[in-house]
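Sample intake sheet
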Amino acid sequence: MKFRTSMILSAALICAPAAMAQTAQTSPAPAAPAQEGTTGAGTASTATAVTDAEVTQFATAALAVAKVRQDAAVPDAEKNAKMVEAITATGLPAKRFNEIAQAMQSDTALNKKIQDAAAAQQPAAPAAPAPAQ
């Protein structure tokens, strides 16, 4: 179960740059200069100070992104937009999703919290059928 959750989160992290690229294209121009004014220390503390609510939102978003990526019915050209929709539907801005994704790569405690939150949202794996005798 942990392996599956790790794989789903890894898939979400792989698509995080795609979600960020989509966000950058749709973001209003005035937001960019405001971001440039932040200091490196401010950016680092923002990225690492992840609330419990954001952990849950991130896990939900990562699972939703994984479903979009695996959905063969969604054309590849539409997947980025659908992934951004899935992320923002959780209440987490795509930019924040990417910040958390980057932070969890170097913060093992945050990574574990997110994996645990994702595992809690996964339905229990069905019991394996007994071998035929």
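Comment: The chain has one domain: 2-23+50-121. Helices lie at 2-26, 31-36, 40-48, 52-70, 76-88, 94-106, 108-121.
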